[in-house]
Amino acid sequence: MRERPKRIYTAPSEERGYELMVEVTDKWNKFYTNSMKSWNSNWDVLTPIFKFSSEVRKVIYTTNAIESLNSTYKRLNRQRSVFPSDTSLLKALYLATQVATKKWAYPLRNWGKVYGELSIMYADRIPE
To answer: Checking CA distances to 35, which of 44, 65, 84, 124 falls within 20 to 30 Å?
Structure first.
């Protein structure tokens, strides 16, 4: 199922993205009813992504640092569900964060173009 949502985000237009979302919903609704319902009911929240170029959209949907960090913390929690003290938990989270941030050091493809587009769209938020 992972490839289908990617096709939605990479669609050339909002209209084509919606068509692909409907296809995905038709195919997967019987298995993932709540997820498909969420896509449909939140489509208006998802559509602003189409105002960005394909390069920027790729950065947005492939480098979600928060999801990556949450995944790291969940993995830590699965491996060790009980910590002897709050301090040991904080130390484990700190070390897990250090490991997770190493993954974020890779350069992004077309970063110059992406940065340029974002700095034009959000000139008041991105320092020069």
So the answer is: 65
